[in-house]
## 1
Amino acid sequence: MPGLLARWRQWLRGRKQKLIRAGENMPLLLISYPRDGEAAAAELETAYAHTLPAMGGQARRLYDSLWPALPAIVVVQLRPSNPCGCLGHHHPPGSESRLARRLASELGHAVAEIDLAYESIRSWCPEPLSSLAVGAGAAEMEALRFRAALLAVLLHEMEHLAFPDRSEPEIRSRSREFYRQAMAEMVAQELGRDYGIA
Ligand SMILES: [Zn+2]
Ligand SMILES: [Zn+2]
């Protein structure tokens, strides 16, 4: 992989790449991002490689069946926002970027691809403000919310890739549930507080 990326540097100029390894059975992520997307790429790396594998209970189990249904590498195109306003998309077979298509042909196997709009995800607020952890600082809650939301949208789009016949409401209800559980776990672990409406 490092050799591949070095050879492509000229062709990929203007964007940077980062390869992320996470838990066993989870696909590698090849993140492609603009120069000012460094912080968002680092946040996604922390979320996918550390936060998600460390989650104990219900949140992670929601996606147990996802990993075996995905190819070994998923390309993630990071953008600040999408012209259509969506938080992310999955790219069905045949609609992948040149990066994903070239990677697939060099590796000789399938590569899946999604995109994530990190500034839109940052300002997305799926839970009412009343459910924020009591007493936690705004900045620390904001950081956790961004991490949980990045994971929720990533997993949502990955589920579309893995199970193309599943309906949007089914996939959406799972990703909302994941977001809720992930926030509860992260707030308890990192801030030592209860999250949610008592
Ligand atoms: Zn869209
Ligand atoms: Zn969807």
## 2
Amino acid sequence: MTVTLFTDTDFKGGSQSFARNKSSLKDTKVGNNPSSIKITGGEPVLLFKKEDWKGGVLYVKGPKNVSNLGSKKAGGKSGFKNGITSLRRTPFDLDLNVTIVKNSKGEFPGDWNSSSTAEKAVLTIVNHVNRFYEDCGALLKLSVAHCTFRTDDNKFVVKRGGADYPASWKRSGEIDVVFVHDFKKVGTQAKSKPPGFGKSITVAAMADFVGGGSGARTTEELARSLAHELGHYCGIHHPSANNSKKNIMFKEGNGDSIFDRVISADQIEEMHTTLSKNVFRKGDR
Ligand SMILES: [Zn+2]
């Protein structure tokens, strides 16, 4: 596939194709003021207003021709005609600082029965989310930077308002993700807030059934929760699902797998807009 930028609208003027990321378009043939784009092939591209993939974000998924990058009607976005300074074709890395909470009896969340089962499950969950991101062209890639077991009965089953963790559990420049056994409140499976709130993402390995009882959740279901909470963390919320049960940000889950869900181009763009302002986005070099 090729990605070609043009200095003028309607694919006119000087043009240049980009096979790789470009942290500054300044010294290219199109300079930092392209006005239209052609993408052949199905791959996604992020266009940024500032150098080093910062500032406003325009997400375009191919195959697509945008005759005027400043026009929403043409597939662009207000302010993006003659206003693009960097271009991204490969995913940004997000490092996760994972905590797996055990209780004082030595039990693990859900049906995990040893450290190695728990670690393996977490890696599987993260791989599922990465496959989902890749399938949807989200240009995001998760890595488990740290995985730590911590014993805490008060966090093994999280009580009302308890999804808050000591500073020693957190790492700057990484997204803190805590796997717990369950929430005391029936129906809650996961929680998170945008990064500004300084909160960790919490994912419970157990689900409460309608009519009582609970059971261990599958890795595909846990991956759905993690991707949903990462959505909140990166600034997208339930209304962005437009009430579609297939959307990753739909507010309820019914045991469904991450692979039953989708994420929209608008949601991907919004996540990258949030990420472009935060230090935990990696891969800038
Ligand atoms: Zn939610």
